[in-house]
Model the fold of this input.
Amino acid sequence: MELLSKLNSPFLYVLCGGIILFVAVICIVFAVRAYQAGKALGIDVSRMKRVITASATFAVLPSVGILLGVIALSGSLGTPWPWLRLSVIGALHYETQVAEAAAESVGIGGLSLSGMTSEAFATIALLMSFCIMWGMVLVIFNGKAYSRRLSAPKQTQKTGKDGKKKTGLAGFGDDAMTAMFIGLVSAYIASYIGQIISGNGLFKFSGSWLPLAVALVSALAMYVFIKLKEKWNAEWLDSFSVAGSMLIAMTCAIFLGKLA
Done:
């Protein structure tokens, strides 16, 4: 508890809160400038207001997923650090997975306050920061080229040295990210299956069946969201699917945890 009180100290709240406030001010400045630019371009003011209202509305539920991530991490890492990570540059799926991997690498067996030490927290915080900072660094050198690549069609044609037209993929980055996260999820699921096979027992909470059951529920919930989106042609459901799946899976974990 002494370590957790340090991780929730007023100093860390002021430090992390100051950074978040700075970023929030920048967002407001850009929003005001974008609104003024829209008026200068002759865009209808009422239409811009509808866009602002719709964007704010659709941002509410996805932000619930971020809040859940902060709550989940705050039990072992304190509140200020997860609040900073998930408010400024972090992503929910990234922060939780990297923090868990870092905790296991320092030998505390996952994110738990009981095994957390000052050295372990420093390692986890450093790894979470180091692994995600490269986007900010690399954009300095290849931001313009990447922007042009994003505006290009998915399939591009170019003429080779032999004079023949060749088709290439312009959106390799999206496919690479998808493949990476499929690999991460597969590794986690395989680890739980491995614990069952190794003899920890199917009906032990620490063994594995509960995480596997929750993962299955989450996958089914996401499948339902995708089918509803396709059936109703509701693109806006993309903004709710991740948070909705998380809420459903966490509710399921609570009820299944009582049975474990």
Notes: The chain has two domains: 1-150, 173-260. The longest helix spans residues 10-40. The mean pLDDT is 81. DSSP finds eleven helices and two strands in the chain.
